[in-house]
Amino acid sequence: MEAVLETDQLGKRYGRQWALRDCTLRLPAGRIAALVGPNGAGKSTLLHLAVGLSRPDAGVVRVLGEPPHHNPAVLAQVGFVAQDTPLYRDFTATELITMGGRLNRRWDATLARTRLADLGIPPGKPVGKLSGGQRAQVALALALAKRPRLLLLDEPVASLDPLARREFLQTLMGSVADTGTSVLLSSHLLADVERVCDHLIVLHAAQVRLGGAVDDLVTAHRRLVGPRHDGAPIPGVAEIVRGSHTDRQSTLLVRTDGPVTDPLWTEHDVALEDVILAYLVDGETQTNHAAWGVPA
Amino acid sequence: MIEFVLDGRSKVNTYMQLVQQVKQALRVGLLAPGDQLPKVREVAQALAINPNTVLKAYRELEIEGLAEGRPGVGTFVTRTLAGASLPNQAELRDDLVAWLHRAQAAGLTPEDITALVETTMRASLPVEGPARQSASAG
Question: What distance in Å separates the CA atoms of residue A251 and residue A176, rounded to the nearest whole number?
Fold first, then answer.
């Protein structure tokens, strides 16, 4: 299948600090993908590289088959909504749509007007005076007016209240159903991710920890409960992602590469959220009782 | 036309919830052969879910022979699950409503009623095997 976004050992450095390193991933067309990870994991850096706002320090990024940096032909087909939906706050929605028409070769102003009319957004009010939810809808309508083949959204709903968040995702899902646009959105809200996305990329400490189709990832992971594990390999288990142990019992979240048939282990399904969290938690929590002056 | 709802706390997959709701509607006669299922776009937007999830549910219904997609038009019900019992359901429902009122008058809470119904069903109805599926196939 065609890839809308492809990276190979992609890296970006700010000073001596790598914000993204050895990032290799492939996003097939037609997916709604989630980019998940803690603050500072490199999510915005990856999105900025994909939309050509910054240039890689290592490796390659290809969007719709081509490097996006200084590439107007590619960028004309990519929609981007940056974090906190920055818009010229003194402009009205109508003015922003007109401006978009001047700046873009492909521009469907009617589509944008229809969307905002459906949502009851006032056309003549400066967007700085709109509610956060309405401003996010204006930013989305502007990004969709390009009729993009790939839509990139950086934390699109993070600052919205639950109702505005639901309305934003409704508009987004309706548009995707209409156009078949591929979407990559970063989010902290795992419940939204589970509802909306069929592809997942987990970033942690500037690196890709997990990537793939949600259905595949969920079926490949299992929770095993059994006697305390001594580190011996378990047939059917490719990797122990996370384990917790009592003196006689171990609970392991594992990635499988076959059926786990050892009768010592009881197998349980895991939800997507459990899988994501298991990859975000570092192996062992570092305690610092001494620093707090409390007994361990 | 039916309207889908999602139980966010359910352990059941989103697409499976949609499949189950269509089957439920077919069982009680809310949907009949020839009826159109809601359009993919409408379901995706109303529930804020991935359109591919809706497509997956509709494909599952097609594989089970319950619906068929007509390109450019939509997805339509081809078979019912109500079987021969549908005409009897209204009368049975009336009996059940009368019984429920009696149970309530006798001081049973909804939880008591559910427990009574479930234990009695287990005790007096034979477990239904896969034989029932093949009887209605085709």
Answer: 40
User: What's the rounded mean pLDDT across residues B81-96?
Assistant: 78
- Partner-chain contact A170 B8, CB within 8 Å: no
CA distances A284 to A202, A211, A220, A278, A281, Å, are 19, 23, 23, 11, 8
The reported pLDDT for the residue numbered A1 is: 66
Closest chain B residue to the Cα of A271, Cα to Cα: B11
Question: Which CATH number among 3.40.50.1820, 3.40.390.30, 3.40.50.300, 3.40.109.10 corresponds to the domain A3-205?
Answer: 3.40.50.300
**Do A197 and B14 make contact, defined as CB atoms within 8 angstroms?**
no
pLDDT over threshold 80, residue B84: no
What pLDDT was estimated at residue B80? 86
Question: What is the complex's ipTM, to 2 decimals?
Answer: 0.83
Residue extents of the structural domains in chain A: 3-205, 216-280
What is the nearest CA distance from B8 to chain A, expressed in angstroms? Answer: 9
Q: Which residues of chain A are modeled with pLDDT < 50?
A: none
